[in-house]
Amino acid sequence: MVLARPEGGCQKDGAGGNSPPEASLAIQVLPKIAGDGEELIRVVDAVIAYIKGSGLTTFVGPFETTVEGSFDRLCEIAREAQLICLREGAESVSTYMKWVYNPRGGVWSIEKKVAKHHLQDAARDGGA
Questions:
Q1: What is the domain range of residue 73?
Q2: 25 to each of 97, 109, 111, 122, 128, how far by Cα in Å?
Q3: What is the DSSP letter of 59?
Q4: Which residues are CB-neighbours of 9 under 8 A, at least 6 positions away?
Q5: pTM for this structure?
Q6: d(CA 88, CA 11)
Q7: Measured between alpha carbons, how far is 123 from 128 in angstroms, rounded to an integer?
Q8: Within a domain: residue 11?
Q9: Is position 12 within any domain?
Q10: SS3 label, residue 96
Q11: Of the candidates 77, 72, 70, the residue with the CA atom closest to the CA atom of residue 48
Q12: pLDDT tens profile 34-93
């Protein structure tokens, strides 16, 4: 499992520390863009690069990217994802988002949700 994680574990608003995130966002952007599939992938990759560069814990999957942090910061990321698609040449963008939010913190981390499955897969595949 590849997880982009800031120093010190989960963080709220880029502030480091080991407190659990207050929100988790799974986001999938589908830009409407002329050209072949490679052009679409280029635009989606630009959004993924932005999210990974946020300094928050992220997990890139085949259909969506999940990121965790403060609710306000994740709202900013969701907004910027749309704008990146448009700046990169998309005519429009459809976005699918799933949210988990607990203002008191304690949202299960990405790692807690998926690590055991990836460990089982690695064991089954001989540690690869």
A1: 23-124
A2: 7, 11, 14, 26, 29
A3: E
A4: 17, 18, 57
A5: 0.79
A6: 29
A7: 8
A8: no
A9: no
A10: strand
A11: 77
A12: 988 999 999 999 999 999 999 999 999 999 999 999 999 999 999 999 999 999 999 999
